[in-house]
Amino acid sequence: MTNVPTAGCPRRQPDTVRRQLFALPMLATALLSTQLLWGAFFVESRTRLAYPPPTPIIEDRHGRFLTEGLEEYDQLGFWDMPEELPTKITRALLATEDKRFYSHRGIDLTSIGRAVINNLRTETVQGASTIAMQVARLQDPAPRILRNKIAETITAFALITGYGHDAVLRHYMRIVPLGHQIHGFAYASRRYFRKPVEDLSWAQAALLAALPQS
Q1: Are 185 and 173 spatial neighbours (Cβ–Cβ below 8 Å)?
Q2: What is the pTM of this model?
Q3: Which residue ranges in the chain fall short of pLDDT 50?
Q4: How far apart are CA 2 and CA 152, in angstroms?
Q5: CA distances (Å), 48 to each of 136, 139, 154, 160, 165, in order?
Q6: E strands within the chain?
Q7: In this predicted structure, what is the pLDDT of residue 50?
Q8: What is the pLDDT of residues 28-68, one digit of tens each?
Q9: Got the DSSP string for 15-56?
C-alpha cells in the first residue's frame, strides 16, 4: 500500500533535515567565535587600572564636613586605598562579593554554573560576576548584551593575569560606587564614619561591604 503525503504538509527529505541539523552547531560556533574575536579586539584597551585623582574634603576648624572637591574636579568621591589592604574591610568584601577571589583568575566557573542552574529553576535572576569582572564593567560601562559580557569576562582574566589579585582587589576598593557620589571604601569611611578605613570596626566594615549590592 502506497503512503500518500497529506495535502498541504510536504514532507522534508531526510538529507535536507540532516544538513540543517548539522548546520546548527556550525552556525552557533561561528557566532560564538565572532563574539570572542570582538572581545579579544577590545580587551587591550580595557586592560588597565585607571581612576581620577583623590578628591579633597573641606572641613571647618572643628573637623566638621563642609564640602568636597574643587572647581577642577569633574568627578567627586575618590580616595586611594592603603598599600596594605585593611583586614576587616577586605574580609567583609570578599565574603559578600567573591568568596573564591584568590582561587580563580577572574572567572568563577563554580558561580557561573550555580547561577545558570538557579536561573533555569527559579524566576530569580542570579549573577556570577567576580570582583575582576565588576572592575571591567565599572571602568567601561556598556549595555548587558552577550558581546559586552564576553569582553568583560576576557578583560577580567587579563586584569588578574596582568596585575595580580591584590592590585585588582585594591582597584575595586578604590572605584566601587557607595552612594552619594562616594567611590571606594577609603573615601566612604571618611564620609560615613569620619575615620580612616584601617580603623573601621567589624560592623562598619560589614555595612560598607554590603553597599555595592544594594
Answers
A1: yes
A2: 0.72
A3: none
A4: 59
A5: 9, 9, 13, 11, 14
A6: 57-59, 65-68
A7: 76
A8: 676 666 666 655 566 666 778 877 777 777 777 877 777 77
A9: HHHHHHHHHHHHHHHHHHHHHHHHHHHHHHHH-----PPPPP
